[in-house]
Write a structure and sequence with these properties.
Layout (H helix, E strand, L loop, with lengths): L9 H5 L15 H52 E3 L4 H15 L3 E6 L4 E3 H22 L3 H6 L6 E10 L2 E8 L6 H11 L10 H5 L23 H10 L3 E7 L3 E9 L4 E9 L2 E6 L3 E8 H10 L1 E4 L2 E7 H4 L12 E9 L2 E6 L2 E9 L5 H4 L4 E6 L5 E5 L1 H8 L3 H6 L12 E5 L3 H13 L3 E5 L2 H8 L6 E4 L8 H10 L8 E5 L4 H10 L3 E4 L4 H15 L1
Parallel strand pairs: 2-4, 12-14, 18-19, 18-20, 20-21, 21-22
Antiparallel strand pairs: 1-3, 4-5, 5-7, 6-7, 8-9, 8-15, 10-13, 11-12, 13-14, 16-17
Helix pairs in contact: 3-4, 4-8
Length: 543
């Protein structure tokens, strides 16, 4: 439009030395000069943008190629670490022959799925546990030929070891067709050792777990291969140190079956990052069955029950910081509480955390001898920013606290102490204001929930009740005056302190806000000390 409005006044024509008719010579005003300059600048910016987009495309293509090469290199390195289970089969056959010859028993070892590959370090550390399980099957499990014949079994005992891969795990199923676990003798030994009380009831599954007790043996005499009470506890410790688990089941006269789950590799794994308190932790993704966001109103019921149900199973509920030995830690109050439902073998737990940070692939680092035997620590990883994060198995912490879980649950109404950190709601349509105010209040020890306008604030109030509200006036959908009016109509929020912070400092706006029931009216920019003092006064009155 500016370009079309040429100056053609006679006074301007006289200034020109040339004798041009006004219609023959366009004269530009300052506005037209500026618009042309702006037009040229826009074209320059477009040229730069196109150049940057071209460079961005080239960079993206280079990053994709680099990512592909990195994955190929990683897979190549992983393949170097992977070895076939076949590499130890001869050793296992020899163990069966030697042990059978020493005990004058005949046994046949059947191996299935031995072509599965797994991490070299995992296989090397599992050789000793496999050898012990084989010896145990022949010593404790398989009967002599006469007893087997009387039971209608073949004189040669059968031992079977199958290997298969499931997702990111290797599953070993180890079983025999022997007599099975002697639950009567296990109970007697457990009572002798003090593991069980004489009048204490225990089902077969609980008695089967007694074989992992250190110092316990059901052998009638001490020999080179049995009777020393050393073995199954070491087997479970080795498996647990590798981040695996072992389960046992037995039927009288039909044999015993061990199921071992181990990670496919110790080098790379999928982890789920969480934050509890000020610390960040990682949990193996294979343990996570479900992630839930529970409303604060539902959370009170769950805290009373100290468990949560899902798909017919009950998950005992624990706060991660409490499991890690910080009973005084206070869970952050949020409109929706994040809960992880975890499962490891037969053990389940509902883990309460303060923040979910997402899933990622991580390189697992060796944690060293100082932490290797500590229960619940699977390994460690280093994040991109250099932070060392521990990889945890929370179900082991729950097993460690064992029976006293119930008293701990009863003491768990500690969430009431969450009120020691008052909740403040900040309602402002400016993202910058919300962030700055949130940081300021967090440094002052408050918990903060934010809303973008009055409608959003009313939705948030259905899930939480702040002790003080910081409110702006000019906002989309519902302004601050309308929100204040609604708050004073609702009995639930009628007495909630409202601090209105706005750039409208005229007496007319201030008087109208006070008529609506606003407690304090501050203009922008405000003094942080004044705002914090007002909030502290209202919180003290509220208490």
């Amino acid at each position: 439009q500016a370009e079309s409005q040429m100056q053609a006044r006679v006074s301007l024509v006289k200034d020109n030395e040339e004798d041009f008719d006004p219609l023959e010579f366009d004269r530009f005003s300052r506005l037209q000069e500026l618009t042309r300059f702006m037009n040229e600048s826009v074209h320059d910016v477009q040229t730069i943008q196109q150049s940057m987009l071209k460079n961005l495309d080239e960079t993206s293509a280079a990053m994709l190629a680099q990512g592909r090469l990195t994955r190929e290199l990683q897979q190549g390195l992983m393949n170097v670490r992977m070895v076939s289970f076949n590499s130890i089969t001869d050793r296992l056959y020899r163990i069966v022959r030697q042990t059978g010859k020493e005990l004058n028993k005949r046994a046949n070892l059947e191996l299935l799925g031995t072509g599965v590959e797994l991490d070299r370090s995992v296989l090397e550390k599992m050789i000793a546990p496999f050898e012990h399980l084989l010896r145990n099957s022949i010593v404790h499990g398989l009967e002599d030929e006469q007893t087997r014949s009387q039971s209608g079994k073949l004189p040669i005992g059968e031992i079977r070891l199958s290997v298969r891969q499931e997702n990111n795990e290797v599953v070993f199923e180890f079983g025999d067709d022997g007599a099975g676990l002697n639950y009567t003798k296990l109970r007697e030994k457990a009572i002798e050792n003090g593991t069980l009380q004489a009048d204490e009831a225990a089902n077969e599954d609980q008695l089967a777990q007694i074989i992992f007790t250190p110092g316990l043996s059901t052998a009638s005499e001490v020999t080179e291969v049995a009777g020393r009470g050393i073995g199954m506890d070491v087997v479970r410790s080795e498996i647990t140190a590798l981040g695996g688990r072992i389960e046992v089941s037995s039927a009288s006269g039909q044999g015993t079956k061990f199921t071992i789950h181990l990670p496919l590799t110790l080098a790379v794994t999928q982890i789920f990052m969480v934050r509890s308190g000020e610390a960040t932790y990682a949990i193996p993704s294979t343990m996570v069955e479900q992630v839930r966001q529970v409303k604060a109103s539902e959370m009170e019921t769950l805290r009373r029950d100290q468990q949560i149900g899902w798909q017919g199973n009950q998950y005992p509920m624990h706060y991660l910081s409490h499991l890690l030995g910080r009973p005084d830690a206070v869970q952050e109050q949020q409109p929706r509480m994040p809960i992880l439902l975890l499962r490891r073998g037969m053990h389940r737990i509902a883990l309460i955390v303060d923040e979910l940070l997402g899933n990622q692939e991580a390189m697992v680092k060796n944690i060293g001898p100082q932490l290797a035997r500590m229960p619940g620590i699977v390994g460690a990883t280093i994040l991109g920013n250099g932070t060392v994060v521990m990889i945890l198995n929370p179900t082991q912490y729950m097993q460690r606290i064992g029976a006293p879980v119930q008293p701990a649950k009863a003491a768990s109404p500690k969430p009431k102490s969450e009120n020691s950190a008052p909740l403040i709601m900040v309602v402002d349509d400016s993202l910058t204001v919300r962030k700055i105010t949130t940081r300021m209040l967090t440094r002052a020890g408050y918990q903060v929930v934010t809303a973008t306008d009055g409608v959003d604030a009313l939705e948030k109030l259905a899930e939480c009740t702040p002790e003080v509200m910081l409110l702006d006036i000019e906002m989309p959908r519902m302004d601050g005056f309308a929100l204040a009016r609604e708050l004073r109509r609702d009995p639930k929020t009628h007495d909630m302190p409202i601090i209105m912070i706005t750039s409208r400092t005229a007496d007319k706006h201030r008087e109208y806000a006070m008529q609506l029931g606003v407690n304090t009216y501050l203009g922008k920019p405000y003094q942080e000390d004044d705002l914090l003092q007002n909030i502290a006064d209202f919180v003290a009155e509220h208490k």
